[in-house]
Amino acid sequence: MLTCHQVAEGATEYMEGAAPPMRRLGVWAHLRVCRNCREYLRQLSRTIGLARRALVPPPAPEVEDGLAAIFAAQGRPGAAE
Ligand SMILES: [Zn+2]
Q: Helix, strand, coil % (nearest 5) of the chain?
């Protein structure tokens, strides 16, 4: 059985699905019995979710140019509404 410390340590990897299967199983088993870690992962997933949304990479320059052309054709930027 993993310790809370081990779960916390590999939490990001686990949530990204990057952890090896045995590790995932260990974390899963731990979460079944440990409310603290369940709560911790829930909070972390919320945080990561927010961070992901904030860190969406900007579009490639050619996409940006294409959008600029579309907006220009419509008269003004952001006129999609
Ligand atoms: Zn725990």
A: 70, 0, 30
Domain limits of the chain? 4-74
**Ligand 1 centroid vs 69 CA: distance in angstroms?**
53
Digit-by-digit pLDDT tens for the chain (81 residues) are 899 999 999 888 888 888 888 888 999 999 999 999 999 999 988 887 887 777 767 667 787 788 888 888 887 655 455
* Distance of CA 34 from the midpoint of ligand 1 (Å): 5
Q: How far apart are the first and last CA of the chain?
A: 54
Q: Is the pTM of this model over 0.70?
A: no
